[in-house]
Amino acid sequence: MNKRTPLLGAHMSIAGGLDKSVQRARQATCDCVQIFTKNNNQWRAKKLGEEEAARFQSALEEENITAPIAHTSYLINLASPDDTLWKKSIDAFVEELLRIEQLNVPFLVQHPGAFTTSSEEAGLQRIVEALDEAIRQTADLKAGCLLENTAGQGSNLGWKFEHLAWILDHVENPDRFGICIDTCHAYAAGYPLDTRKEYLATIRQLNQTIGTSSIKAFHLNDSKREFGSRVDRHDHIGQGHLGLEPFRHLLNDRRFRSVPMYLETPKGTDPDTGADWDQMNLDTLRALVE
After folding, report:
1. 236 to 123, 230, 245: CA distances (angstroms)
2. At 2, is the pLDDT very low, low, confident or very high (cuts 50, 70, 90)?
3. Is 58 left (phi over 0), alpha (psi -120 to 50) or beta?
4. Three-state SS at 98
5. Are strands 222-223 and 234-235 parallel, antiparallel or unpaired?
6. How far apart are CA 167 and CA 62, in angstroms?
7. The CATH number of the domain covering residues in 8-288
8. DSSP states of 136-166 as a string?
9. Are 38 and 45 in contact (CB under 8 A)?
């Protein structure tokens, strides 16, 4: 692959087996892939077998798909003030770290959490305590965690870059952590990306708070909702409120050429052409690379 071309991929379903997600990625012309390692709406999952893990690894090699990452279950809330849910979330997070280690997947993407009935400060502290406990329990693993910025719906933390920076500054083992930046979430949270000047100002703010070297992945999503809405609704590239220009700025930013980027846009086919939406979105993105 041309060194100047960003690694572009998408989140893929694991229906039928983890290896099937890799085959779907190749069919959609992905370079990289993001998956759930289990049903994301259930706490429990059957243990991963060695054979299933081996099939996943073989599929990555055969289909020439690189930089696989996984996303945690949406049930996990590491900021919860409820002790039962908090401990259950830590256990589930640990289990997901063990699963990606078995799959030789380097990173697990995690939304920081929602403070619900407590406060922003208490929620952030709770997240740090949960992450520290999870890392203590998996001290012998290589697998790391990428904290994802959020749109800031409800009491969700992580919509301010300062939230993510505070967490990274306070965990005991920052080397096991990085950041995943979602374009839709950033825009919905009130970080402008439209013009080149706005994009550069937002990236400068990101660098000053977190440091761009901490960014290990991007989620490329347009937004169905307007700037600063604090509502998380993904749209196809160029068809939402972001439009194409923010993606043009990002794809041509040499600082991020080696950082893999994953679509989380709606699935299916275009009713007019019958074309696969993932492939269409990837084609749209690749056309923006200069």
Report:
1. 32, 18, 14
2. very low
3. alpha
4. helix
5. antiparallel
6. 38
7. 3.20.20.150
8. HHTTT---EEEEEP----TTEE-SSHHHHHH
9. yes
Residues contacting residue 135 through CB under 8 Å, at least 6 positions apart: 171, 172, 173, 176
Name which of 136, 219, 129 is nearest 176 in CA terms.
Answer: 136
Map out the domains of the chain as residue ranges.
8-288
* H helix or E strand, kind and range, residue 26: helix 18-27
**Segment 38-85, tens digit of pLDDT:** 999 899 888 999 999 999 999 999 999 999 999 999 999 999 999 999
Q: CB–CB of 107/178 below 8 Å?
A: yes
Residue range 73-113, pLDDT digits in tens: 999 999 999 999 999 999 999 999 999 999 999 999 999 99
Q: Is residue 84 helix, strand or coil?
A: helix
Share of the chain above pLDDT 70, in %: 99
Q: Could you give the CA distance from residue 201 to residue 95 in angstroms, rounded to a whole number?
A: 38
For the chain, the straight-line distance linking the first and the last C-alpha, in angstroms and rounded, comes to 15
DSSP of 184-248, one letter per residue? HHHHHTT---SSHHHHHHHHHHHHHHT-GGGEEEEEE-EESS-TT-----EE-TTTSSS-SHHHH
Q: Is the pLDDT of residue 3 over 80?
A: no
Is 50 exceeded by the pLDDT of residue 149? yes
